[in-house]
Every structure is written in C-alpha cells, then in structure tokens.
Amino acid sequence: MSEVVKVERHDAIAIVTIDSPPVNALSAAVRKGIAEGVKSAQADDSVKAIVIACAGRTFVAGADITEFGKPPQSPSLHEVIEVIENSTKPVVAAIHGTALGGGLELALGCHYRVAVKDAKLGLPEVKLGLLPGGGGTQRLPRAVGPELAVKMIVGGDPISAQDALKNGLIEEIVDAPPAVGGESFARKIVAEKRPLRRLRDDDSKLAAAKADKSIFTNAAAAANKRSRGLEAPVTAAEAVSHSLDQPFDQALKTERELFLKLMNGDQSKAQRYAFFAERAAAKIDGVPDGTKGREVKQVAVIGAGTMGGGIAMSFANAGIPVTIIEMADEPLKRGLGIMQKNYEATAARGGIPADAPAKRMGLIKGAVGLENVKDADLIIEAVFETMDIKKDVFTKLDQFAKPGAVLASNTSYLDIDKIADVTKRPQDVLGMHFFSPANVMKLCEIVRGAKTAPDVLVTAVNIAKKIAKVPVVVGVCDGFVGNRMLAARSKQSEKFLFEGALPQQVDAVVTKFGMPMGPFAMGDLAGLDIGWRSRKDRGIKSEIADALCEAGRFGQKTGKGYYKYEQGSRSPLPDPEVEKLIDETLAKLGLKRREISDEEILERMMYPMINEGARILEEKIAARPSDIDVVWLYGYGWPIYRGGPMFYADQVGLKKIADRLSFYAKQTNDPSLEPAPLLKRLADEGKTFASLAKGA
Ligand code: 3H9
Fold first, then answer.
1. Cβ-based neighbours of 253, under 8 Å, separated by 6 or more
2. Dihedral (Cα; 479, 485, 491, 492), 10-degree rounding
3. pLDDT band at 469 (very low <50, low <70, confident <90, very high)
4. Does residue 487 contact residue 469 with C-beta atoms inside 8 Å?
C-alpha cells in the first residue's frame, strides 16, 4: 500500500482509493500507487472486480502540472492505463467532483465508468496550452463519437454527468457516495458476467465520420472558431483526427509526439504559468492565517449605469440577490431595461437558457434612494467618478448600512483612503474595481485601503470568486495596477501620432501581438469626448485628440473617431480624413512626420508598461509580479499564451528592456522612460521578475 493510494477488499470487490489532496493529481507517487493497487487486485484470485475511486473533494483532476518540464518518472500515465485496460477483471472508475485531463483519461482506460449526479468530466488540457496526452484524443472519440470529442477537447469545457450518460461516456449515474456506487455497479456487472469493454478496441462510434470526412472537419472547424493565435486547440484537433485515419497504437504515438511538442513550446509554458499565477493572486499577503470572510447573502449596487448594471448582473448570474439603487425612477428604469435586453440578447444567441433572463432579472430588485442599502451585507458603489460625489455617497452609506456591512467602491482611479475617511467605519471600506463590461470581464481589483480590516479583504476575495471573477488584491495609487500601467502605454500611443505613425499602424502592431484591440480602437469604443472634457477642465491640451473632438469625432457613438464606422458596424476603418487632420495639426505645431518601425511601436507600447509594473512592485501596490500579469490577462485581454507583461518581460530579457527604455528616454526626451530602479537592478544582476517570487 502506498501513502496516497490504498486498496481495500469488500469480499470479491477490491476498492483502490486515491487520496492525494487537494485534487488527487496524478503525481509519480499516485501513478505508482494505482498501478500497484490494480496489479495486486489482479493477482488476487478471490477478487472479481476492481473499483477506482478518490477520497476528498474530487476524482483525479489531471496530471500533476508541477511535474511538467521535469525529468519523467515511471510509471507513465500510459503505463498505468495499460495495466488497467489489460486487466482481465473489470475495472470501474467511480467519479465525483471533476474528472479532468489525465483523470478522465485514467477513467477512459477503465472498462466502465459511473459518476455521481453533480460530477463533471472534461479534457481541459488546451487551457494549459496542451492536448490530452494520456490517450484522451483516441479513447474519448471512441466513447462519445468524434464530433463531441473534438468539441470537448478543443473547447476544454467539461460536461455534466447527465450529458456524459447521454453520450455514453459513463454507464450510470449513482445515487450514493462514489466508492459505494462504484462497488454496487461492480457487483452488478460481475453477476451479469458483462464482457470487458476496452475502448481501444471499439471503433463503432467512429464509423460514420470515417465514411464521411466532413462530419469531423465541420465539427473541428466549429470548435476551433475561438482559438485565435493559440497553437494547442488546432494541434489537439489534429490529434483527434488521427482516431479516424491511424490505427489506435500509431495514433497514440502521434498524440504523444504532439503533446510533447506543445509541452516544450513557449505557449504552454506561459499558459501553465498563468494557471498558477491566478491561484497565487487569490492568496492575500499580510492577512493572518485562518481569517474568515463575512457572510454575504444580499448585495446592493449603487448606480444603474453601465458599470453598476454589469456588476449587478454578475451577482444575479451567480444566484445572489441584488438591489440596484438609483436616485430617481427614470435612470433606474433605463438601467433595468438595458440589463433585461442584455440577458435576452445572450439567450437569443444560445449563451444562456431561454428561462434564464426571467430568473436572473428576478434576483435584481430596483430601488430609489440610498436608504435601501439597509439589508445588504455588501454594498458596491458605482456612481460617477468624482471624489466629491463618492464622498457624499459614502457619508450617507455610513448612516444607512447595517453594522458589519462591507462598503466597496468601484472607483478606477480614486483614493480609497479618502473615501473611507468620510465614514466612521474605514475598516469596512475597500475598492472592488470591476472592468467593463463588468458582466463579462473576469478581473476584479480588490483595493486594500490603509485601514481595511483583514476579514473585509477576505470577504471581497471570496465573493469575487463566487461570482466567477478573478480577484487580485492591490494597493492604493492613481489607477491601481491596470489603469496605471495602461496610462504609461497611452502616453506613448498619443506621442506616436505626433511623431508620424497613424492610429491603424499602432493598433495593428498591438493586435498582431495578440491584444484584442489597439489603443485607438479602444479610445473610439470608450468615447473620446470623456477625455476631451476632462482635459478642458484641467486646462490640458492634446492637439490631435482635441482636433478630432472639435470635428465632432467622439468615437463609435458618432460613427467616427480615430477611425470611421459604417452604419451599425463596430469595425474600425482607416479614414483619410484623420490622416489629413493629423497632418494639419502637425503642420501648425511645426512638427514633421517620420517613418516609425513596427518594432519601435511594439517596444514603446510594451516596455513603458513593464517599467510602470516595476514601480508598482517597488511601491508594493502589487504583492507579486504574477499578480500584475493576472490583472492584464483578465482585465485587458492580454494573450494568455504570452503569460502577462511581467512574464513576457522575463522572456524578452530585462537587460534588453532596460537598455531600450534608456534609449527611448533619450530619443523622445522623456526621462520618465528611464528604467525604474527595480528593473535596472534586476537587469544589472541578470535576474528576472520571477526571481522576486517567494521561494524562487
Ligand atoms: C493533463 O492532465 C495532461 C494529461 O492529458 C497528459 C499527461 C501525460 N496539478 O483551482 P484550485 C492545485 S494536464 C497540480 O484553487 P478549485 C492548485 O494549484 C492537467 N496542482 O481549486 C491549487 O493549489 P494551491 C489537466 C493542481 O476547487 C489547488 O490544487 N487538468 C492541479 O477552484 C486547488 O486548486 C487540469 O487542467 C494539477 N492538475 O478547482 C485541471 N489542479 O492551493 C486543473 C489543481 O497551492 N485544475 N492544482 O494554490 C482545475 O481546473 C481546478 O484546480 C479544479 C479545482 C477544477 C480541479
């Protein structure tokens, strides 16, 4: 018996139990334990059937990702599966929680599978830049047919036990603890003398797609629609296709080769990094161990504008009742109407079930007047971004909120401490900065004020996770992590127009890098008039942007901005008028355009942001470089296969980045581009940002 795998005998049934918290990942010890457990049961004449089940919260959730990139240890997952598949006694996988990746592949190697009703089964390897490398690309198509298999493998999303049953992935849903359900199923098949079903030998579900190749190619193309820039989904579809044109053993060999190619590639390295970065971000520095969050059963959101509405929808989506509060009937009605329409559009697209809009709107209650926050455990303010207005709202909240309620501001720039100070309970105040559109974007910057209590921080992190957001705890500064770094980039994009680049050139470099949008298309989307008004208030000029606004070009809302837009379209089209306007403005300023290379654009878009990231780390606004990466991955659509700006910086090399920043500081006469002290130190010492992580 091993430490992590135990074998128990219940007369003729041997139960092999994997017990390796937290998620029973297939570490070398677990693999060895399973192989030995199954072999010992196989060798015991009195055993008639074997059940593989897991202790703890889940069935095996996959290969142990921490082992990737290290020297392989035997037995491999393939060898373990071979032992199971070749067993002359039936082996039953009894699944609960999530059978994912190598976990599902292990189950697919068993002769039968049963699951409890809330189990989920999937092959999410593509999300780590990989493909199933333990036979999943060959056994899953044989279990459920190649169309569903390619959808599951390329999309990476798990299916429910009900769908698994419907599609032949499991034999039964059991209404008992998994090991108990597995045992009774095993007894049944022994009594019935059911023949062993080895998926490797069963090609029946492949026949239709073998006869008509378009069945598979259409399914693969549909599954691959969203894989822009990613290598894994395309390679995974290729591996699955070999279930149709290669014999099983040869296709397994091909799967292995493709798996290794992906595992050793840069994309998977970045995606695996992102997986652990996201989990590290949920750990709050400086909070005493065991700190429990406060209970949140009822939420109030103040402001039914775009942000408030999106935030309220995020809570309703997670089944949490929310009151959305406005100061008058009319804006409340408008806000509720937009939410309703939004849900209906998603339902019409098939994104949510047809009855979801009514159910979710049923959880959102509209109310006029701040006194309606009185029952809320968490109050999120999403009103106009002005300090005076925020202070006024928080002063009133202090009167109406019940004791112990968490008071959050959705401010994207303002000083949380100043907001907290107008209340008598600054310990209950913090920032919860959502990103637009708030019902879609996953990031939530949790802004920790000087006086925020530890359990308030924990509450915010817990609730953010509950509504499927990715929380990152950050400190107070202008723009926090994301917008502060974005400002460093915006400064450069604006400058480019004065030096000779056009919006479309800058945007093309940024989107080619993998960002969903360039800075100018983003400006058009957000509306150029907002910045224009704020510049006027502050007496600041930005001649090109000002000229655009003076010409009535406010962005998408007026059909033209840095680009032009055809009626009803959101696709930016380069506009010769804009080039003319830029030329005229430069002529007035006595400036000449110069040829700017794409390389310079990329460097000046990315490196100043990284430099700002270094300052953010120095000032302890972010606890770890990986937290900054998580902000960019989930708040701004940074391409996951590039890990995040700080990870990317490590790949480029900090020495190069520091040198180029110094160069551009001189070239553009901008001392703020000089490398930050932390960046300079790491570059001089030949180190990386990753070297700053605890234990690195
Ligand atoms: C694979 O299987 C390849 C094969 O095809 C081929 C092999 C040859 N390994 O997410 P949580 C840790 S690729 C190591 O917070 P939840 C995680 O880091 C794999 N560690 O919990 C965290 O640690 P910590 C395919 C893992 O309840 C702790 O467990 N499988 C692994 O929100 C708790 O995790 C996947 O991609 C792992 N595989 O969600 C599944 N998984 O506490 C990846 C988790 O120190 N895992 N950890 O921060 C998941 O999707 C989620 O963890 C899961 C639980 C849904 C299981």
1. none
2. -170
3. very high
4. no
Beta bridge partners of 122: 100
SS3 category, 112: strand
| Ligand 1 binding pocket includes 146 (Cβ within 6 Å) | no
> Is the CB of 77 within 6 Å of ligand 1?
yes
The 10s digit of each residue's pLDDT in 169-184 is 999 999 999 999 999 9
- Give the global pTM: 0.94
Using a CB cutoff of 8 Å and minimum separation of 24, what contacts does 527-531 make? Answer: 527/554, 527/555, 527/556, 527/557, 528/553, 528/554, 528/555, 528/561, 528/562, 529/554, 529/555
Gap from CA of 230 to ligand 1 centroid (Å): 21
**Percent helix, strand, coil in the chain (nearest 5)?**
55, 10, 35
**pLDDT by residue (tens digit) across 591-605?**
999 999 999 999 999
Ligand 1 contacts CB of residue 255 (under 6 A)? no
Take residue 60 and report the two structure tokens written for it. 């095996």
CA distances from 480 to 476, 622, 629 (A): 6, 9, 14
- Does the annotation mark 499 as catalytic? no
Ligand 1 atom closest to the Cα of residue 61 is: 56
pLDDT tens string 357-391: 999 999 999 999 999 999 999 999 999 888 999 99
The DSSP letter of residue 65 is G
- What six digits make up the tokens of 204? 């029946």
130 C-alpha to center of ligand 1: Å? 14
> Which pLDDT score is estimated for 151?
97
Q: Give the pLDDT confidence score for residue 225 in this predicted structure.
A: 87
Residues 674, 659: contact at Cβ < 8 Å?
A: no
524: left (phi over 0), alpha (psi -120 to 50) or beta: alpha
Going by alpha carbons, the residue nearest to atom 11 of ligand 1 is 279
In this predicted structure, the answer to whether residue 261 has a pLDDT above a threshold of 70 is yes
CA-closest candidate to residue 113, choices 164, 48, 63: 164
CB of 262 shorter than 6 A to ligand 1:
no
In this predicted structure, the answer to whether residue 1 has a pLDDT above a threshold of 70 is no
Q: How many CB atoms lie within 10 A of CB 465?
A: 14
What is the structure's pLDDT at 356? 96
pLDDT, one tens digit per residue, over 613-662 is: 999 999 999 999 999 999 999 999 999 999 999 999 999 999 999 999 99
How many Å lie between the centroid of ligand 1 and the Cα of residue 437? 28
Between CA 406 and CA 381 the distance in angstroms is: 11
Ligand 1 atom with least separation from CA of 276: 18
Q: Pick the catalytic residue from 36, 85, 105, 183.
A: 105
Would residue 579 show up in a list of annotated catalytic residues for this protein? no
